[in-house]
Amino acid sequence: MSAFQVVDLTRFVPELLLGGCILFLFIGDLLVRDERKKRIFLTALALAGLASAAAAVIPTFWGNVQAALGIESYATQDIVAAFSGQVAFDPVATVFKILFLVITGVAIFTSLLSDELPDRHMGEYYALLLSITFGMFLMASANDMLMIYLGVELVSIVSYAMAGYRPRDKRSSEAALKYVIYGGAASGVMLFGISLLYGLFGSTELTTMHHAIVSWASRGELPVVDGVIATAKLFPLTVLLAIVFVFVGIGYKIAVVPFHMWSPDVYEGAPTPFTGFLSVGPKAAGFALLMRFFVGLFVADGQNGYAATDGFMAMAIDLPLPAMIGIIAAATMTVGNLAAIPQTNVKRLLAYSSIAHAGYLLMGFVVLSVSSLHAVIFYLCIYFLMNMGAFAVCQAVRDRTGGELLHDFRGLGKREPILAVAMVIFLLSLTGLPPLAGFVGKFYIFAAVIERGGYWYWTLALIGVLNSAVSLFYYMRVARAMFLTEPLTDEPLRAKRGYLALSTVLVVPVVVLGLYWAPVSESIRGSLAFFRSQPMSAAAHPSVVDVREP
Amino acid sequence: MLQSHLPLFLVLVVALGLGVFILVVSSLVGPKRPSAVKADAFECGNPPSGYARERFGVKFYLVAILFLVFDIEAVFIYPWAIVFSDSTRGAGTLSPLLVVVEMVVFVGILMIGLAYAWRKGALEWGPEHGKGLETTTAGH
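Above: the input entities. Below: the structure tokens describing the complete assembly.
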């Protein structure tokens, strides 16, 4: 633990640039009078902020990838926890930050096009959107329960406001209210879990708790807090309880069963560009946080500073965490897919599909191996492309027809063939059919689960495959409406050019990554190193915990 | 851990005990001469007008938020002043200049917030100004 150092700020440059951009957006909102010009000006300003943050992140990312390829060695000063160990700066955080910046960039573009967002509110809208990105950055690099909570709350509270963004729209207000109530309850439970962890370990720092868990697993030593030793009988149970409570808070962010109830209503009621963002951005940040939390606490230190690759050390200490996460993953994908089948509102359908995808992604956490963590990040990158693409098409249809029901998609194949074809490609990729990117992503996840071996893991993978087959049914209902039903009118849709351009831009990587995914996959593989400090007693020097194979 | 929190518990116990003590003793010992004026609702010394459960302007919500922001600012400046005075005497590790710059950044951000609220009309609460606000009064 060291006090605040000015040098910490130099690592925080991307976040500071985002923060500065948020302030400029507020000022810019006041400066420009003409509302149409204001929209363009503020969009440019927000994109400039993102670009400057990206310019600050990319060199670090590139350095990490080169180090992984063996071209250079890690600059160890680049893998640290700054601000008294609260925020970790390591390759995993960096790769997530790049993903978040790209997601936000696409979201800004869809927001610019949308008819649902009035010109006069764009300043606030973009400022809030970038605040969420800032919060996601904190979530991806949190190294302390306090920072985890702060990141989650920053993202949540701003999301509540954004969900109710359509003025005087009852569904939008309903969405916001439901979201607030669910979010408040979940974060309360999570705080309780954090307080239990603090009581058990005497610290909120992930690395300190990790070292306590290591000595418990390897030598049976229980942590001593303020001279009091934990009760041997109750300790594992209380740890499990605390983990479950924290999982409630994160699980609500990524919308897993049984904390998913808010998501269909919120997705339906929120403005569509924000729904698209919400379904990938905060979800990816939630998975980043889950990764930090579980790897930070439960992945053992391996030899030569590498982490062991055999997943939960918790197995050695009789915590049923893999079983718990496995059951939640299976329940999440099954409930999500089954509930999606009868939907007639495409936004709601995509909401349930995104719940199902949270289930697939959660499978990676059952195993918690190098290949599964790699698969989760890789799948998040691909999921973002196809899901935001599907929402962009949905938005284009909504802007012209005023609705987003299956009914409104009828005959889209004739009325706007480019959008319809793009939508089919996104949906097939979401199903996970080759040769599209979604197949590669799912393949990596299932492979990581099967690789672990054992009856239960094979069952879980089988459930995942069966669920993918079920999902084909409801995705194809949308395709059927677009191509096989009689259109209500033959008149062309005349969607804005921007939507055509955007869906084309998103279709290309979905197709290309299905055939040639090595660069993305390898740079993620090269970024799988987590910050971890030595035990307090051993040394004050931090070390790198690299979960890649030695 | 328990021992370090003992003073806190003592304060709680004393506070609770004192409150209960005052209420009980005054109800036992105090003279009881009720009158119509005494039984009235207390409204800052004025004769009460109207019924308490009525709708009032949602604008007050905005006033409360603004108050909260600047209130927190004041609270934050107090500990900052201690750190600053330590740093001028060379007691802390931080240079006084850095400490001042940090506070300037903080107050600067708040100033932008004030300018924004002002320009957006959050500080105009007369009936003729309320039109500019997104959240106009409910009722009346």
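Note for the figure: The beta strands of chain A are 80-82, 87-89, 224-225, 228-229, 299-301, 307-312, 529-533, 542-546.
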